[in-house]
Amino acid sequence: MHVSDVGSNVGKEVELRGWVYRKRSSGSIFFIVLRDSTGIIQMSAKKGVTADESWKAVGDANIEASIIVNGTVKEEKRAPTGFELEIKTMKLVGNAEPYPITEYQSPELLLDNRHLWLRSRKMTDIMRFRAMVFKYFRDYFFENQFWEVTPPLITKAGGESGADMFALDYFGEKAYLTQSSQLYLEVEISALEKVYCLVPSYRAEKSRTIKHLAEYWHLEVEAAYYSNKDNMDLQEDLLSYLCGKIVKEQTPLLESLGVDKKRLEAIKPPFKRLTYSQALEELNKKGVKKEWLDDLGVEDERMLTAEEKKPMFIYKWPLKIKSFYMRADPDDPEFALNSDLQAPQGHGEIIGGSERIWDYNELKSRIKEMGLSEKNYEWYTDLRKYGSVPHSGFGLGTERVIKWLLDLDHIRDAIPFPRMINRIYP
Ligand code: 4AD
Ligand code: MG
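^ inputs. structure came back:
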């Protein structure tokens, strides 16, 4: 049985398997709080109730020891969850040495001990939340006829600016860890029409910010015959679906994590849509000097979204500062048919997406213009020779979305083992 089922078994004898979360003694009684993947419960060991053979295990068990306990469930108003287990027998499975993590530790110590800190209540909740977010994404795409595909993570060429790639030796040839699976998804749409993947992307950016990881889980989506407008509507619908599911099914987890449910209930279409020019104007109004063709930094995004309650699109960026594959607006060729989606309350960019160039000659000349290797992209330009179609897609940083949904201070807590410029252990 799990801790979450204890409440419906008052008066019965149950067996729990878990770990010692807290322990104290008061006179001749021991109180042990057991935790498992579903929660915590207080247990008491008393002479006369607890079997004599178990008494040594009760005394010896240290914080984080693994234990198997049999006992009777009682209602107990003074216990943190309202229930208590009276221990009849307890088996010490694996005892623990003195635990290196105590209350009030520095973030650095907790990161050094990440392999142990992941057992904390907070990290357990976040990891369960993360698993549910992944599930809801997959549910959404399954319900909407998108196929999940699995692109390669080792590649010859990047989808984004080549400068931020991790290089590796591939049997004597230079290769890279992927920055984005987009180009491979574009291959798949000619067969499957609507596809997505949920795999890592790698960025060797030397950014020390609260929203950059060197390895992150990238949800990427690509769809044939989708315009940039369809693409934006899809992003809006996906995030509204996600928040709806979380609110409906994950209220206890939100409460445990101290997240105000109302924040997520508000996430419904339509999302505000601002052009790049309007975004610059907004920033200038707020006293931030921005020049035409300037990118938006972490601080700019924070300023722009601080007062927002819902995600906000910034679309129609100057083509010059965007990726080679983005399609120019035929009615306004200085601009790309693209958008970034900004999370509210200062969290900033969570999605980047665009319509893709689908004309062979247009793509060839963009690749040349940007000084990219034509040879490495030959297979990609090839796609435009054999039944090319208009199409669009986007990439969503799952950790950035989790950081926003849970209002975390730093992206590192949205992933179990954060890879950052100064961290690769454990
Ligand atoms: O804006 P990006 O670089 O766009 C692409 O890679 C496109 N090829 C996606 C596509 O159209 N298929 O990255 C997409 C998203 C960002 O909006 C952000 O949420 C996340 O990926 N991201 C990061 N997340 C964590 N750490 C980093 N270093 C990230 N870089 C990008
Ligand atoms: Mg981007």
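Residues 159-160, 180, 182, 203, 205, 212-213, 216, 218, 220, 349-353, 393-397, 399-400 surround 4AD (ligand 1) (CB under 6 Å). Residues 3-94 form a domain with the OB fold (Dihydrolipoamide Acetyltransferase, E2P) fold (CATH 2.40.50.140).
thumbs up if we can close this ticket
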